[in-house]
Design brief:
The protein is mainly alpha-helical and 524 residues long. The chain has 22 helices and five strands. The chain starts with a helix and ends with a helix.
Length: 524
């Protein structure tokens, strides 16, 4: 196969000659050092996102480690993640440190995998700059401390691309099968793997003349994909029930937060423009257009175009709202094209200064957006990590204090999610304090009987229509600034009468329903 640089030169895509030299090694070394320093910062200072999927996945892994059992391979969240993390917890019972370590290892691994995957088609220099762009991608760094599925998923599909691209040159069944294994593991982590599998198979058919190699690649992931549809059917359900559940949940969340289709489309524009930033996205889109002649062989182009089209259609038809970690999964495929255009720009000036200027502009754009839009101008909020809100810190400390009072049998109900500015979660407080809770494992014996009720599941909350568990609780936690707070108070008072409320934070009210608990809590 002709080297991509040669192909692009013949197509007159390049503006000038690329100097492929030791610069690539120096740039990649810088990517590794910078990437490691930024990820260690997130590892040491980053908080778990309260109420986020990462927190609940970690909680389920802890619950599974306490009572291991086979839960199949399918679900709204494929459970392979907590099989893996839960098994490691049996060896080292430090859940948060262990989860962050996994994020750090796979995050750094993704930088190496990016370079290996890109260099087959684009050459060493573009590969090194692509790795550099990934090393400073704020979302990818933040996920080290907050979520523990996307980072391994990205490493696995980049590794799959690497061996697929290698197989075009080697024609080796070993390379094809290795790519298949990596994609199969990715499929077991996120449902996007089904879309990736379809694209990979079509790509193999178009670029491999050997049906033996196509079947070598497709056999394992197709079996896994088929089983994830068959398994729910065996249990009297359907895979599409997962899809329906998530769709309804997102719709309810949009309704409660007043998010419209225009808001969703605005996020489609604002999020990529700030993280990874316009300095990456605009050159990336331009580079993708200029490199369209090589699209047949280029898996990165396939993955970017197909995933953006798929999720944009979901936004237009179902008001699906993008999130930074979702955007990362498909915009990461744009990095080689951005790197390609960056090289064209820096070749016209001294490389050291021009590359430093582009990196600085990208980092400043991301950190400014992160500080304002993600961390609400908190101290250190410009770093690529989640800074805990003051409300969450207050709740964490209060739960730890209450737990030391040895008040057994307390029934706690929390109404999540509350403020988008001062976000907090009851589950977070139990997780970071290492307290046993039935929130993550219904079979676990715990001094506290806890439940988090999701606001999006309560369309009648504004009228005070509450679930039975809230009337039966000893304490109910709710955002005292929520529009439905007074309706909750009226509804609880009408049923329980002697109701008291204390504020442990301007955004957290603890409604005390049990007389005994009122005495104990208020006196302390």
């Amino acid at each position: 196969m002709l080297n991509a640089i040669t192909i692009l030169r013949r197509s007159k895509v390049l503006f000038g000659k690329i100097d492929v030299s030791n610069q690539s090694e120096m740039i990649f070394a810088g990517a590794v050092v910078l990437g490691l320093l930024l990820r260690l910062t997130a590892f040491l200072l980053g908080d778990i996102d309260p109420g986020g999927d990462g927190m609940w996945r970690l909680g389920y892994a802890i619950g599974w480690a306490q009572h291991p059992k086979w839960e199949g391979l399918s679900g709204v969240w494929p459970p392979v993640h907590w099989y893996f993390l839960g098994s490691l917890l049996l060896l080292w019972n430090e859940p948060i440190l262990l989860a962050k370590t996994i994020g750090l290892v796979f995050g750094m691994g993704a930088i190496f995998a990016m370079r290996s995957a890109v260099r087959h088609l684009f050459g060493d220099l573009v590969a090194a700059v692509s790795a550099l762009l990934l090393s400073i991608y704020w979302t990818h760094i933040w996920l080290t401390s907050s979520y523990w599925v996307e980072i391994p998923f990205i490493f696995l599909f980049l590794s799959s691309i690497n061996y697929s691209m290698r197989s075009l040159e080697s024609r080796s069944a070993k390379d094809v099968f290795t790519s298949s294994v990596f994609l199969s593991l990715a499929l077991l982590l996120r449902h996007e793997g089904h879309l990736l599998l379809g694209l990979f198979i079509i790509w193999y058919i178009l670029n491999n003349r050997s049906w033996r190699l196509v079947l070598t690649f497709a056999a394992l992931p197709l079996c896994i994909s088929a089983w994830m549809f068959i398994e729910p059917w065996i249990n009297g359900h359907s895979y599409f029930e997962f899809v329906s559940f998530v769709k309804q949940q997102k719709a309810g969340e949009n309704l409660m937060q007043g998010v419209t289709l225009i808001d969703c489309l605005t996020q489609w524009t604002l999020m990529p423009a700030t993280v990874p930033s316009i300095f990456v996205v605009i050159p990336g889109l331009y580079g993708l257009w200029k490199a369209r002649h090589m699209l047949r062989r280029d898996l990165f182009g396939w993955l970017f175009i197909a995933q953006v089209s798929f999720y944009l259609s979901m936004t237009l038809t179902s008001a699906w709202r993008p999130q930074l970690r979702y955007i990362l999964i498909y915009f990461i495929n744009l990095l080689p094209y951005a790197a390609f255009v960056w090289i064209q720009m820096i070749q016209r000036f001294p490389v050291r200064y021009s590359l430093t200027a582009l990196l600085t502009a990208t980092i400043l754009a991301q950190s400014s957006a992160w500080w304002v839009g993600r961390n609400n101008r908190y101290p250190l909020g410009w770093l690529p990590l989640r800074v805990p809100s003051s409300a969450q810190q207050s709740l964490d400390q209060w739960i730890l204090k209450v737990s030391k009072e040895r008040l057994s049998g307390i029934r706690l109900v929390s109404l999540a999610a509350g403020s988008r500015v001062e976000s907090w979660s009851l589950a977070h407080a139990f997780l970071v304090n290492g307290l046993p809770s039935n929130l993550f494992n219904k079979n676990l014996s715990s001094p506290f009987k806890c439940e988090e009720v999701y606001v999006a599941d309560l369309p009648g909350i504004h009228q005070g229509d509450l679930p039975a568990s809230m009337y039966e609780a000893d304490m109910v936690l709710v955002d005292s600034n929520a529009s439905f707070y007074q309706a909750i108070i009226r509804s609880l008072t009408a049923r329980r009468r002697n109701v008291k409320a204390i504020n442990i934070h301007p955004h957290i009210a603890v409604i005390l329903l049990s007389p005994d608990i009122q005495k104990e809590i208020v006196s302390n």
